[in-house]
């Protein structure tokens, strides 16, 4: 079922009618008498009716449900070619027309339907327009559509010559043609609805006890997604399986990922406190002091509270119960090393999601899937084993990238002591966990210098024996998926929109094509006084922005750092940019997020707004 709106002489509708399996409903805003007076209109209307199409007159595109009975409102496609308020209406009035039109479409469009809007060159305001108008002088069609829950899924030239008999008309409400050279057809689809995240409780094993805890709201839609499960076709699982298959050709392989604890307890030596998701167990479920002491003695953990906690253990004082979501699989592997659980010569594979608070950038992830490889080898041959391990990873990664994009990437192993590039958040946190010997970098255009996707290290002295050395490699599967499949924003890996996974049938890796083009962005500034005598926690600030917006903030930039003469009070000004990568985000919704962000900042960060 195809609905055409705002037809001038009905020549476009006449060119579409007669297609097998298609029912056309052609409409115009004018009365039948006015429409028939346009050149060629009477002939096109007869052709439409002869072919079985419906022709309706005096149809207002902003009130569509009034013209169709409930059972006849499910249109698969709605066409609106060259909408205009008429006469010399400016961009503001035409934006208002489009806004009302898109809201009206929501009431008559099928769930998987499309809305096609053709605009003259430059009107849309997207990068597809050549030349591109300044944003304020365009119709801002993507932002206007987002306000009604639509995303731009495709845009291509409007080829008038392919529609037999088509002749544009209606220039300034007259029976005159206008220039359609460079015109574009914008295809919109429904966005997934906004996330309504409710408090989520999660159960997990902590030692011998099952405990429950409330998941941090920023992670509520990311816990237990099952991307690495057997029946998953998600690219992170495909990459893990491909790497595992390649490694099994060089080493005996043992997968030990099924028993990994989600929560850790104790202290995190060397790791910045603000990078950790600290957890409070549900009331009455915290293990006893004796159990906690035993847990600290058996676990390999680290923290700012390390020395205090160790002193409490020695002196028999009560131990503060510190629980946190695992930021890495390495502590679990190190606990196994202490027990001698790794068979020499066998490559042990651990994998699962890990959680780290971090600043907002397109490649900084509060959660990602880690693949940890651990190999115990005889002393003296560790360098050759490292080289064999790295060569295998490089070969598999290069083969996958070439199969997906046809381009051979640059994959390098760089010594940590000579690494010249700035560390990304993944690599920087790995350095907090312990000494890193090498960084594994994958370089692709337009970033040939490489993004660090893995680190290699040998175990500290306390895990070595006179005969064995333990080598480990940690890989960020999410970063690898982004680089291999051309995904520019990590948030897309976690989208609930089915169109993402539909591009990877049965675990096949392909170059990703975004289903949300040129998403609009909204910029807001916030300025505040920092509490006297306190260091401002910027990671907590970014995490609060993630939480309040539901990961709709794409950038936070410090614009000004001012210290007031005399009082010494410090003021900060940040620029916050809201943008979604996968769903519609309208200006009003972004403004509401900014309002809530300002309120939450005062409550949780103790700042004073300016």
Report on the architecture of this protein.
Residues 517-610 form the FDX-ACB domain. Belongs to the class-II aminoacyl-tRNA synthetase family. Its main location: mitochondrion. Pfam families: BMT5-like, FDX-ACB. The protein has helices at 11-16, 32-36, 41-50, 91-105, 141-146, 235-247, 289-298, 306-315, 330-338, 382-405, 425-433, 477-485, 498-501, 538-549, 587-605, and strands at 2-5, 24-27, 54-56, 75-81, 109-119, 150-157, 184-190, 201-206, 209-214, 253-255, 263-265, 278-279, 323-325, 347-355, 367-378, 410-415, 438-444, 447-458, 468-476, 522-529, 553-563, 570-578, 608-609. With 610 residues, it is an alpha+beta fold. The chain folds into three domains: 2-190, Vaccinia Virus protein VP39 (Rossmann fold, 3-Layer(aba) Sandwich), CATH 3.40.50; 227-260 and 328-505, BirA Bifunctional Protein, domain 2; 522-609, Alpha-Beta Plaits, CATH 3.30.70. The strands form five sheets. A seven-stranded mixed beta sheet has the order 3-2-1-4-5-7-6. Strands 10-14-15-19-18-17-16 form a seven-stranded mixed beta sheet, sandwiched between helices. The chain has a four-stranded antiparallel beta sheet with strand order 21-22-20-23. α1 links the parallel β1 and β2 (24-27). The two termini are 54 Å apart. Residues 289-320 have low confidence and may be disordered.
């Amino acid at each position: 079922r195809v609905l055409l709106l705002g037809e001038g002489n009905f020549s476009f509708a006449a060119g579409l009618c007669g297609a097998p399996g298609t029912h056309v409903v052609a409409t115009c805003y004018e009365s039948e008498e006015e429409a028939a007076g346009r050149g060629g209109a009477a002939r096109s209307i007869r052709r439409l009716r002869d072919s079985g199409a419906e022709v309706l007159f005096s149809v207002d595109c902003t009130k569509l449900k009034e013209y169709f009975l409930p059972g006849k409102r499910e249109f698969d496609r709605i066409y609106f070619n060259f909408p205009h308020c008429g006469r010399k209406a400016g961009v503001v009035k035409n934006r208002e027309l489009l806004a009302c039109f898109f809201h009206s479409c929501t009431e008559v469009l099928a769930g998987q339907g499309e809305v096609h809007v053709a605009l003259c060159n430059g009107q849309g305001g997207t990068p597809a327009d050549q030349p591109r108008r300044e944003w304020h002088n365009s119709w801002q069609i993507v932002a206007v559509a987002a306000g009604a829950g639509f995303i731009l899924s495709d845009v291509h030239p409007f080829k008038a010559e392919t529609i037999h008999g088509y002749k544009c008309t209606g220039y300034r409400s007259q029976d005159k043609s206008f220039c359609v050279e460079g015109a574009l057809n914008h295809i919109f689809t429904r966005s997934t609805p906004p996330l309504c995240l409710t408090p989520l409780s999660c159960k997990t094993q902590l030692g011998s006890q099952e405990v429950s805890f409330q998941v941090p709201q920023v992670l509520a839609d990311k816990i237990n997604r099952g991307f690495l499960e057997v029946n998953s076709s998600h690219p992170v699982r495909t990459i893990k399986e491909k790497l595992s298959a390649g490694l099994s050709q060089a080493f005996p392989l043992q997968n030990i990922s099924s028993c990994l604890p989600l929560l850790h307890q104790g202290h995190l030596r060397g790791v910045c406190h603000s990078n950790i998701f600290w957890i409070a167990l549900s009331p009455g479920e915290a293990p006893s002091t004796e159990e906690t002491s035993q847990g600290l003695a058996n676990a390999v953990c680290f923290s700012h509270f390390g020395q205090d906690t160790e002193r409490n253990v020695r002196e028999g004082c009560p131990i503060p119960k510190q629980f946190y979501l695992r930021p890495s699989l390495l502590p679990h592997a190190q606990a196994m090393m202490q027990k001698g659980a790794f068979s020499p010569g066998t490559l042990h594979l651990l994998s699962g999601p890990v959680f780290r608070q971090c600043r907002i950038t397109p490649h900084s992830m509060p959660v990602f899937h880690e693949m940890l490889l651990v190999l115990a080898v005889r002393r003296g041959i560790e360098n050759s084993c490292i080289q064999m391990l790295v060569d295998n990873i490089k070969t598999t990664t290069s083969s996958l990238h070439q199969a997906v994009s046809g381009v051979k990437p640059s994959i390098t192993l760089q010594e940590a002591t000579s690494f010249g590039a700035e560390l990304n958040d993944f690599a920087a946190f790995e350095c907090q966990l312990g000494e890193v010997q090498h960084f594994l970098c994958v370089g692709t255009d337009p970033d040939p210098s490489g993004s660090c996707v893995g680190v290699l290290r040998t175990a500290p002295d306390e895990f070595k024996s006179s005969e064995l050395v333990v080598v480990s490699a940690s890989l960020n599967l999410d970063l690898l998926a982004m680089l291999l499949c051309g995904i520019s924003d990590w948030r897309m890996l976690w989208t609930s929109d089915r169109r993402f996974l539909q591009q990877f049938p049965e675990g096949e890796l392909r170059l990703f094509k975004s289903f949300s083009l040129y998403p609009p962005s909204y910029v807001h500034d916030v300025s505040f006084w920092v509490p006297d005598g306190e260091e401002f926690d910027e990671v907590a600030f970014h995490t609060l922005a993630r939480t309040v917006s539901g990961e709709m903030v794409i950038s936070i930039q410090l614009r000004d750092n001012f210290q007031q003469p005399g009082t010494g009070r410090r003021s900060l000004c940040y620029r916050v940019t809201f943008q979604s990568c996968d769903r519609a985000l309208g200006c009003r919704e972004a403004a509401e997020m900014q309002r809530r962000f300002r309120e939450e900042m005062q409550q949780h960060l103790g700042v004073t707004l300016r």
